[in-house]
Design goal:
Helix content: 25-40%
Distance between the termini: 29 Å
Order of helices and strands: EHEEHHHH
Number of strands: 3
Strand content: 5-15%
Number of helices: 5
Strand order of the largest sheet: 1-2-3
Length: 187
């Protein structure tokens, strides 16, 4: 069994870069805790890290879950957020390296009819597709984010929002940070 670390997005900086932990090696819980504590002293509100490595199984936390001072729960769950873009890009680039995906091919080759036929895989990766951002269309309740905080969105729901709208720019002509690009890549 290899190493598995489940963490808040901020805790990914603590991952063991390129190093697997052998079953007979131990993870020093104190060092991991010190790392999390350092993160919260430098501005991260709260962080949790679950370690599953060799024989080690533990969860550490630091900081607060809410501004009211409640500690991060040991059984807390966190949305991955934009760190998922890094993983998505890595997989797409691996597929390109294996010859399974061409970065300059239209997305339509792999996902027929999903987006404008002129948009390429590379443009999605570079956020130059011109697609409308679905995050600009999600309506928040007058109470703000809380009513939809735990809602899960299917990729098809998110992609349906921008594909019903005109492109915001010609593909390849303008960079705009846009979550839609990576939802399409993840399809």
């Amino acid at each position: 069994m290899g190493t598995r670390l489940l963490a808040t997005p901020a805790a990914f900086s603590l991952l063991f870069t390129g190093t697997a932990v052998a079953d007979d090696q131990r993870i020093d819980r104190k060092i991991v805790q010190e790392g999390l504590d350092e993160m919260t002293t430098k501005g991260t509100q709260g962080v949790q890290l679950r370690v599953h490595a060799g024989r080690d199984r533990f969860t550490v936390r630091s900081g607060t879950a809410e501004p009211d001072g409640r500690p991060v729960p040991l059984n807390g769950r966190f949305r991955a957020g934009s760190i998922a873009k890094t993983f998505t890009a890595t997989v797409v680039l691996q597929l390109a390296g294996e010859g399974a995906v061409s970065l300059d091919a239209p997305v339509d080759r792999y996902l027929p009819g999903l987006v404008d036929q002129r948009i390429t895989v590379r443009q999605l990766l570079q956020m130059t597709s011109g697609l409308y951002s679905y995050t600009d269309s999600i309506r928040f309740d007058p109470q703000g984010f809380e009513p939809i905080r735990f809602r899960s969105w299917a990729p098809a729901e998110l992609v349906a929002i921008p594909t019903g709208k005109p492109l915001q720019a010609e593909p390849g002509t303008k960079y705009e940070y846009n979550n839609t690009n990576y939802v399409v890549l993840a399809c």
